[in-house]
Amino acid sequence: MSNYIRAPFRAVTLDPELRIFRQVDRFGIEDRLRLIQDFFSQRGSVGSIADLGGNCGFFSLSLLDAGAANSALVYDLGENFLEAGRRFSTTLGLDKKVSFINQEITLDFVKNSLPRVDLILCLNLIHHAGYYFDNEDVGNEGWAAYALNWLNACGLKSDILVLGVGFKESLPISWIKPTRLEKFDSRPLALAQIIEQSEWKIDYESNISDLSKYGIANAPGRRMSPRTQGSVFTILDFCTNFLYKIRYKLEGILGFRFPNKRERGDRKSKYHIYILTKK
Q: Cβ(51)–Cβ(75) under 8 Å?
């Protein structure tokens, strides 16, 4: 069962069989929801939502159920995700407020087919560009230019964008090579600089692990310092990568894997969230 399929809490209270969809939250899904709900509690109902790559529509359904939105379109290619979402919406009595649509989300779709809405949720999608979709666009222009085009396309369709990005070892592709020194990853800041080139401004940003650890008020800014410049960092990064290469070679020779703290530990640290509004 996918860890991304998560039932809204009230759905489980109405149908205890849905408890299987409330597994351990390894990706900080509940932390993200609390942030989004807190942000919109100060703004009132947002009206309509487009949930891009929305899986089972957990965030949209939770906002609808709380009265923070009036309608939602949830787009995903995984029919099993969409079916789970339909089940959750039926349990919550939200069938008439949400539509689950099997659709590949591409830059062209956002530009030309996505209807205008009050809020776009894009929480687990754009870092897959160039790998799962829009491979040619990302390959030709690089992920940075593609991300700017994506932001501008979303700006044509909404005045609020909640953007979640996974900064993983191999994703996004055709962009900055990540460092093994995880807390010194320059990519969250680099994406913030791309956002500055668009018509959006950042109202809130945080690493999901920091959000979980420090809370909404104290999480922002902790990954935004330009600490990855200079010779000291370059040497540390080189040495760390060299040690990892030795480890992988030893694993091949010995036939087993050494314990990996990053793999066992906090997966939330790979994800960053930005809440954007128009300048």
A: yes
pLDDT of 244: 62
Across the chain, mean pLDDT equals 90
137-172 per-position pLDDT tens digit: 999 999 999 999 999 999 999 999 999 999 988 899
Looking at residue 114, its amino acid is: L
Which pLDDT score, from 0 to 100, does residue 13 have?
Answer: 96
CATH architecture entry for 9-228+266-278 = 3-Layer(aba) Sandwich (3.40)
Percent of the chain predicted with pLDDT > 90: 72
User: Considering just the CA atoms, what is the radius of gyration of the chain in Å?
Assistant: 19
